[in-house]
Amino acid sequence: MYFDRDANPQDIEGERVAVIGYGIQGKAFAVNLRDSGVAVLVGNRDDEYRKAAIEDGFDTRTIADAVADASIILLLVPDEAHQEVYHSQISPHLDDGDLLVFAHGFSVRFARIALPPNVDVALLAPKMFGKPIRQRYLDGSGVLAFLDVIADPSGRTLRRSLAIAQAVGFTRYGVLPVSHAVETELDLFQEQFLTPMLIDAIRISFEVLTESGYDPIPVLLDMHASGEMAEMLIEAASTGLFEVIEQQGSPTCRFGVQRYLGTLLGEEVRDKGRRILADIRDGGFVEALSAEAAAGYPSLAEYQREYRASGITKAHDRYRSMLDERGAATGVADAGEKGAKNAA
């Protein structure tokens, strides 16, 4: 892994960085870079994010103008916008020796954009969303990131990428060399297998208990909304998945876990994981995603209707209203709102 000792801010001294997209990650990248003394431009289309960048005091321009006036370009717009934005507003304004950095390898892995031969290209993919990237920087720490040198015509791609990683705060935690193809496939697998399986596990637990007559609110809290399970997973990130149960669980908890561990998810689930991974690697998912995007994402609207009508969502709405009532009764509305957001 690369750490602060492996990065040198002089490797980007005098260079200007264009942050393209001032959304979830773009804002965190931009403010951290600025706080580290890096010259930053923001390139964004004319929308609420552009207004936010201006309000935050950034030199904010069209995407094309920002790219033209920078030597390092961080592409932080959503994956589905990469093709249009890159080919129409970025590629024509890249100069020899510029460094183009992706925060996710999707567009390169699936050849959705044509990389120029005269430009350095790197992946710098944080394994966290925007808010913790900013907060941990302010706290003096950082988040894990993956790094890949995709193209290196200048011979300086690694050094410059590490300097950017240091300025954003990633080398405080650690930056791991991982190829852009592997990063993409792991990320998509987590989104399509692990995440829905975890959500389904909580949903099924909720339904089994409420169908058996238990009150939805304490069920909701005990299954996930109290935050206890989330805290266990956070602790497990440093302690270990099995070790956290051993260290933090009572004998009753440990006995209950080991009694059924390895029996609830059978080979059929493993086979589904293999099929999902194969679909990602052979391009089936990208084909399905492209068709969905072209149709305006109709399945997402249907999914939203279904989950909003579900028992677990209705229970969570009731729980939020209880916290709102607490805030109104005590005159501390912010505390109630914070509690509801934490529970969500």
TrEMBL record:
Keywords: Amino-acid biosynthesis, Branched-chain amino acid biosynthesis, Isomerase, Magnesium, Metal-binding, Oxidoreductase. Pfam families: KARI_C, KARI_N. GO terms for biological process: isoleucine biosynthetic process; L-valine biosynthetic process. Residues 1-178 form the KARI N-terminal Rossmann domain. Residues 179-326 form the KARI C-terminal knotted domain. PROSITE patterns: KARI_C (PS51851), KARI_N (PS51850). Pathway: Amino-acid biosynthesis; L-isoleucine biosynthesis; L-isoleucine from 2-oxobutanoate: step 2/4; Amino-acid biosynthesis; L-valine biosynthesis; L-valine from pyruvate: step 2/4. The keyword Metal-binding applies. Mg(2+) 2 binds at residue 187. GO terms for molecular function: isomerase activity; ketol-acid reductoisomerase activity; metal ion binding. Mg(2+) 1 binds at residues 187, 191. Belongs to the ketol-acid reductoisomerase family. This is Ketol-acid reductoisomerase type 1.
